[in-house]
Amino acid sequence: MMALQLAIWGAWAPKLFPYMGMLGFSADQQALVGSCWGIASVVGIFFSNQFADRYFAAEKFLAVSHLIGGACLLGAAYSTDFGPFFLFYMAYSLVYVPTLSVTNTVAFASLAEGRDFGTVRAGGTVGWVMASWPFVFILGAHSGVEDVRAIFLVSAGISFALALFSLTLPHTPPRKGGEGVDSLAWRRALGLLKKPFVAVLFLVTFIDSVVHNGYFVMADAFLTERVGIAGNLSMVVLSLGQIAEVVTMLVLGTVLAKLGWRATMIVGILGHAARFTAFSFLADHPGLIIGVQLLHGVCYAFFFATVYIFVDEAFPKDVRSSAQGLFNLLILGVGNMVASYVFPNLVAKLTAADGKVDYQTLFMVPTGLAALGAIILALAFHPPQAGPQTTSENA
């Protein structure tokens, strides 16, 4: 499940912004496309995840969503004008984004121990990597629109495959409202933001999500235009981070047990700061830039996967899909939207008359944001428990 779920995303994500540039979309138009996931995350909180929590078996929800999503991806692949492309991508976002939190719900419901989620989520990382490597052969070093649209065709095929596979997943029924159970799951999830430690984590997750999504906005162009890596190899280079992510996911449970929530998350955020600092000052050393991609595993597993595990332990069982959706609102939605607006416009502002981008200045922005997030966590994040429980609390 996780392998197919993330492969859908991994097939198009690294090339989305370069592809929109090939289509001639302006920075503001690219920002609008980037906002689709933010809108989808909001809709997910108030409708899709609420629907999955209360009224619809999770595996059936996934099957229907991925069937519709695959059709929308096919539409996006053959839309070269902004209007149709935006509409198809928006429709795809509305049905795909909620499935990311629903797959988390299915995984946690099937696990004896929540901290084992890292091992399961590693399958998603494998899927992302597997989706990237075929493009070495599908694309050329300098591919045009006709070739690069394959990112959506491949993604659509995987989406249809997951729609079928979802029907074989363990039955994960909805939690019906009853005595003491609010019929609006999202309302209870939002209510938990009144707790200071949840509010602090919510703020830091927003900051880190802007940094994380900014990486995907800028990295491919940086590798091809500044570092000099061929266009058909850039996705492979980026996938090295996902390969490292598999390793970090596998050791995440052990790291959490030893370091606890706060220290593990701080390490994850500082991984972003280290990577973008390297991008700023080591662009003339391709080998080092390629090697620093391995930090992506630390960035994702030690912060975002840890957040998902924390949510599963800190939030009541009957609102966990909505709680996962609440943090996805930041990780995939608001943070994605802000990054999609800020960084393309920042790139445009830092582009000289000869077309060269001042990447050194550009990458110091996410470096500073990552450092700020780490400081806030260190000073203000005080959860009631230092680390995960040894056994899952499924109540």
Automatic annotation (TrEMBL):
SUPFAM superfamilies cross-referenced by the UniProt entry: MFS general substrate transporter
Alphabetical UniProt keywords: Cell membrane, Membrane, Transmembrane, Transmembrane helix, Transport
Record carries keyword Transmembrane: yes
Subcellular location: Cell membrane
A Pfam family of this chain: Nuc_H_symport
InterPro entries: MFS_dom, MFS_trans_sf, Nuc_H_symport, Pept_cys_AS
Bilayer topology term: Multi-pass membrane protein
Residues in coiled coil: none
Name of protein: MFS transporter
